[in-house]
Each structure stands twice: as structure tokens, then as C-alpha cells.
Amino acid sequence: MKKLAITQIRSRSGRPEKHRRTLSALGLKRNQQTVIHRDTPAIRGMVAQIPHLVKVEEIENGND
Question: Which position among 25, 26, 55, 60 has the lowest Cβ density within 10 Å, counted as fewest Cβ atoms?
Fold first, then answer.
């Protein structure tokens, strides 16, 4: 199954509360932090709300 490496590339300071909550839901607490998530529609939807704050890379995982 594919996975996504999601990296926060911009600060959450001064952003709307909805964007800050989305970053927290993804597990991003600091700028330049990277988290790994499964490639699901829910995660894709969250990333689609904040494309200006994150960078997404697809990872092919051979273990699953």
C-alpha cells in the first residue's frame, strides 16, 4: 500500500484555526517536521485543505 510523507513547510502562525487544527490532526507540531500516513481519502482531503502549508511525497512501501 502507498504511503505519504507529509512535511510542514510553512509556519502555522497567523493561519486560520481550521488550518491549525488540520495540521495537528495530521500530527504536525513543528515547521519542517515530516510524518508518514497511509494514502487514504481522508488524509488526502486533509492535505487538500492546506496545500500551501505542506509538501507531500508518495512512498511505495513493499512491506504491505
Answer: 60
